[in-house]
Design a protein that fits this description.
The protein is about 35% helix and about 25% strand. The protein has a seven-stranded mixed beta sheet with strand order 3-2-1-4-5-7-6, with helices on both faces. It binds S-adenosylmethionine. One of its GO terms (molecular function) is methyltransferase activity.
Length: about 220
């Protein structure tokens, strides 16, 4: 599926993501995760702003919110206003975005590694963009640790990709383990399909993300 079709697919789902935000869907996990956000925050693939109700406003100076879907961004802008979060919005593709090194104190990504062309390269970029000692906070879904469920996820993945625009068969912990990030804590829920991850950048032995395109990773 090409990028324009994916953007349209997500834009068509924006109203549903807005309803989920209003219902505080997955709110307990979102709240625990983004409580650690501090300073200048990058929220990658912000969607309709489902994390905005949970940011610790007194600790956050600014959120830079990126998404490639204009409809999602429109909903996220309403959420930022409603919850009083100072936010700069960028309509951009996370697979081809760049920021100077150490641009952020915190990077938040929820339910997004399923969507990127190359999630490992995006995590390398997070490592590059987050300052040393900062927080990288992930809530991601992927391949279950339950064998039968994982088989079902593998076989249904092409269909789900066509319907939702994202993959349900990515091995999230394996991708995080292979990235530059230093894992602090991880929790796993729903038969190992959902992962809450607290990580920090590891600036030692850092790979320059721009060289990774010569060394492609295979992600469906
Ligand atoms: C499953 S939704 C999650 C939204 C939000 N993070 C949340 O937790 O509800 C995935 C979001 O990623 C965005 N997205 C997917 N691929 C992207 C890319 N390459 N660049 C920017 N945004 C992307 C979609 O538009 C959508 O808003």
């Amino acid at each position: 599926m090409n990028k324009a079709d994916r953007i349209k697919k997500y834009s068509r789902q924006a109203a549903m993501y807005e309803r989920n935000r209003k219902a505080h869907s997955l709110g307990q996990w979102r709240s625990r995760l983004v409580q650690s956000a501090r300073g200048r925050v990058l929220e990658a693939a912000v969607g309709a702003g489902a994390n905005f109700p949970f940011y610790p406003k007194e600790m956050v100076d600014e959120v830079v919110a990126v998404d490639f879907s204009p409809e999602m961004l429109r909903k996220a802008k309403e959420a930022a206003k409603e919850y009083g979060i100072p936010t700069t919005f960028m309509e951009s593709d996370m697979d081809h975005l760049s920021f100077p090194p150490d641009s952020f104190d915190t990077i938040v990504s929820t339910l997004s590694l399923c969507s990127y062309e190359d999630p490992l390269t995006v995590l390398h970029q997070f490592n590059h963009w987050c300052r040393s000692g900062g927080n990288i906070l992930l809530m991601e879904h992927g391949l279950s640790s339950n064998r039968l469920l994982a088989i079902a996820q593998q076989s249904l993945d092409p269909l789900i990709l066509r319907i939702e625009g994202c993959h349900h068969n990515r091995d999230i912990m394996n991708i995080v383990d292979r990235s530059d990030l230093r894992l602090k804590t991880a929790e796993h829920y729903w038969a190992g399909c959902i992962h809450l991850i607290w990580a920090e950048p590891n600036k030692k032995d850092q790979t320059d993300p721009s060289t990774l395109s010569e060394n492609p990773n295979i992600f469906q």
